[in-house]
Amino acid sequence: MFGRKKKQPIEITVMPRHVAIIMDGNGRWATRRGLPRTAGHKVGSENFVKTVDACIRLGLECLTVYAFSTENWQRSADEVEGIMKIMHAYIIKYVPELIKKNVRLRILGDLSYFDEESRRALLESENKLENNTGLTLCIALSYGGRNEIRQAVEALIKEGATEISEQSISDKLYTASLPDPDLVIRTGGEKRISNFLLWQSAYAEYYFSDDLWPDFNEEKLKEAIAEFGKRKRRYGK
Ligand code: FPP
Q1: Which atom number of ligand 1 is nearest to the Cα of residue 37?
Q2: With the C-alpha atoms ordered 176, 178, 182, 188, is the resulting torsion angle positive or negative?
Q3: 75 lines ligand 1 (CB under 6 A)
Q4: 19 CB under 6 A from ligand 1?
Q5: What are the pLDDT digits (tens) for 89-146?
Q6: Is residue 153 in some structural domain?
Q7: Is 84 among the domain residues?
Q8: Domain count, the chain
Q9: For residues 237 and 105, what is the distance between their CA atoms, to the nearest angstrom?
Q10: Three-state SS for 167?
């Protein structure tokens, strides 16, 4: 009777096919605790793993996370090295678990920034998971939306294309054959898209959360998806 009001369960009415997340706020999460920024990325990676599990439970078809942008290479050498170490460890170590969880992996980005060994390791991880049929997990790594579109057009020119259609560009993007994102979530309070899936998100619904990425838990993800279900999508019509 005097207890706290019971929280209403979150009702998901429409399930998006593809959710894309800009995982922002790791640095601030760490700084507020007097920790080095890399500690925030470590906790952020743990939250990434929990989010993948939550998406599997929700039966989501495709999840894309923005892990590292082409612009992020300009951060301090220490931070870049820290993020790369964490990511390398996760992507490689996580593969056997992803096999068990029936997850497919796609790395979206310009891998020419990586050394030969890292490039090979990433491609091997993708190959090991390519026959899975559950959640498609896309990790945007060394990713920039404008550069992705530029590369697609360049590839078409090199093939000698005389006409360029929207479909022919889509087919040359890192996301070729994937559904466009229906819902793009950005954590960390900023309201911008930071060169993320520019072409693919033409008709996506955006959801901005003030929570820093390490605090964005399953409950908050469900709230975002429930809010998505309330939006009226008109595709410009
Ligand atoms: C943005 O927070 C976060 C990043 C640039 C790195 C994100 C990387 C991870 C969460 C690791 C993911 C791991 C895998 C395996 C995909 P920020 O540093 O810009 O935070 P700030 O805005 O508070 O400074």
Answers
A1: 18
A2: negative
A3: no
A4: no
A5: 888 888 999 999 999 999 999 998 888 888 898 999 999 999 999 999 999 999 999 9
A6: no
A7: yes
A8: 1
A9: 34
A10: helix
